[in-house]
Specification:
By secondary structure, the chain is mainly alpha-helical. The chain is built from 8 helices and 2 strands, in the order ααααβαααβα.
Amino acid sequence: MHRTGTTTLAECLRLLGYRHAPYAGELLGEVLAGRPDGALAMLPAWDSFNDWPWPRLYRQLDEACPDARFVLTLRRNTDTWFRSVCGHAQRTGPTEERRLLYGHPDPQGRRREYAAVYERHNRDVMQYFAGRPESLLTVCWETGSGWSSLCAFLGVEVPQRPLPHARRGSTSKARKPAAGEAGAAG
């Protein structure tokens, strides 16, 4: 889901050499309407994806790419996530993506509705991949996830550079690197 460190994940994947797809939020309406073909047609051109519409396609992606690996990014808790969504909404104003996902284009005064979607998505993803640790990695950059866990999951070498905390907002706190992590406080 958005506002969970997906931009950080995207930058990590680029640094690791993956061809990472650009934002494709314009496809969200089609995906939510049950027409994922436009999004799925992008698969051959890219190695990794994040943000809209991809969180809504994990089942189809898993079927289309049975050896794919999925990374579920989380925030420390729902309140932290919701504060981030509200802060983002103050900068961007109401959006069609939020209207499609949460039923309201602006989160202000809609915590219950937004939180229900966020929590249901996380629960559904974890249930879908239950018993398949080789397919799903859950990370929270705020609580210590970093290069070590991501690279071990992907089977690649840990870069000798700090984890790129892209778009770190005011709700994030700097953290110390986890054991075995190359300068992850970045």
